[in-house]
């Protein structure tokens, strides 16, 4: 399938899949693009999609970006999920430099002086490298998570990384996510029970207070609202 055919298919399917269930979107994605992967952050949305993938296409590749700065609860969630779904080889994708090398090159606590640069080193570059091996990827982004995601389609062309992007639960609410988790007994990060609705790196994530926006805990005090993976 050449680029023109892909773009035509994407435009058509974006309309057709708008009212499709997440399972239908995933089924179409893995059937149409066998060389596809899922980027898992082990947040609530992503553990839902792992569960769905195991029921629909258990051999689909799943990777996670190990920034070296995740909460211990995130790593523990990864390990618990690996036990629940023993057939999944969660592929670890690491930055090109260690935290120590980063500190030596850019100074201590780069996330405080230039959070965008830190995200670029520890997230965007590694993601660019891994996605270059695929023709499509699946994400857990939802439209109501942030204004930057409000116009996300179920299927779209990711111009930043140059491949097809599927957002199966783009239309879901937070309640939809947690209803699925409860109904299917899905393992989730315990930090969600401690006022962490959105969980990123430990240095740049804090608890969200009552009345705050769900993503207020990410890069608190900065204008930054995205790490750069979905912009």
How would you describe this structure to a colleague?
The protein has 231 residues and is an alpha/beta fold. The protein is built from eight helices and six strands. It has a six-stranded mixed beta sheet, with helices on both faces. A hairpin with a 4-residue loop joins strand 5 (155-158) and strand 6 (163-166). Helix 3 packs across helix 8 (174-183). The chain is globular. 35% of the residues are buried. The model has no long low-confidence stretch (mean pLDDT 91).
Which characteristics define this entry?
231 residues; alpha/beta; 10% strand; 4 iron, 4 sulfur cluster binding; phosphoadenylyl-sulfate reductase (thioredoxin) activity; APS_reductase
The 3D shape can be described as globular
Adjacency order of strands in the biggest sheet: 3-2-1-4-6-5
DSSP strand tally = 6
**On the 0-100 scale, what is the average pLDDT?**
91
Structural class: alpha/beta
As a whole number of angstroms, the C-alpha radius of gyration is 17 Å
End-to-end CA span: 26 Å
Largest sheet: 6 strands, mixed
- Helicity level, as a percent range? 25-40%
Strand content: 5-15%
The secondary-structure element order is HHEHEHEHHHEEEH
pLDDT < 50 stretches:
none
Number of helices: 8
